[in-house]
Amino acid sequence: MELWVSIDLLEGRVVRLIKGDLGNMFVYSNNPAYVAKQLASTEIDGIHVVDIDAALNRGSNMEVIKEIVKNAKGKTVQVGGGLRTKERVEKVFETGVDRIVIGTILFKDKALVQELVNNYGPDRLIAALDFNNEGIVYEGWSMTSLMRLEEGFRLVDDLSLKLVLMTAVERDGTLAGPDIRFFQKIPAERRSHVYASGGITTPREVKMLSGIGYRGIILGRAYYEKLAPIKDYIKAAKGVSSVS
């Protein structure tokens, strides 16, 4: 299983929000490029960048993203947040990122998604099926689609997308652990295409998600607060038996 670490950007800083709430935030660094450089020196599989300002329609961290890409040498970088127009998608790809994460346009502009698939190929796009107790959410988690996850997966199939990111909003940034029982309900044949996110805290939790066949996980606050050495999370993701 792949292990990724998230760099969430707000006004040029590396932050973590609790459940996406701007009023409940931790600031971890004023130098995202340096964080990317540190991550590039580890054996993680990739860096997941979220432009919170763009997601909330309050600005952009495009220049910061360029610096992250420069300093993340050798690592795959994917970017999400506010990618709702063809022009913005083009600008993000021009920074040198490998993949983008799309959410809102899955529900509001299917024609654009199809155009992006045709232009870039399905392997460079990841569909975000972020969810809370009411259903799939989008537009910076401010809107609820009322779409069940089964419908979300059908939408992904209809748009010829392959990769899916599923973030449990109610757990995101909480260090409460992932909703393992929920992730166990996802059909086994889907899991090899899905990245799980939201609340993942311990190497043991990573190992559990690896054991049930998920393609990857995205680590956030647990990494920044050094709850365990990053090598332990990596071992857990790769299924090393000594990890407890």
Q: What's the CATH architecture name?
A: Alpha-Beta Barrel
For the CA atoms, what is the radius of gyration?
16 Å
How many strand elements?
13
- The figure for the number of domains is 1
CATH superfamily: Aldolase class I
Find the structural class using helix and strand composition: alpha/beta
Q: Which CATH class is shown?
A: Alpha Beta
Q: Biggest β-sheet, characterized?
A: 8 strands, parallel, barrel
What is the chains' assembly state?
single chain
Instruction: Enumerate the strands of the largest sheet in spatial order, edge to edge or round the barrel.
Output: 1-4-5-6-7-11-12-13
> Helical percent range?
25-40%
Spans of 5+ residues with little confidence (pLDDT < 50)?
none
Looking at the structure, what is the overall shape? globular
Number of helices: 12
**How many angstroms does the end-to-end distance come to?**
16 Å
Order of helices and strands: EEEHEHHEHEHHEEEEHEHHEHEHH
If you consult CATH, what is the topology? TIM Barrel
Average pLDDT: 92
Which range does the strand content fall in? 25-35%
Give a structural overview:
This protein is of the alpha/beta class and 244 residues long. It is built from twelve helices and 13 strands. Helix 1 (32-40) runs parallel beside helix 3 (62-71) and helix 10 runs parallel beside helix 12 (230-237). The longest helix is centred in the middle third of the chain and has 11 residues, at 110-120.
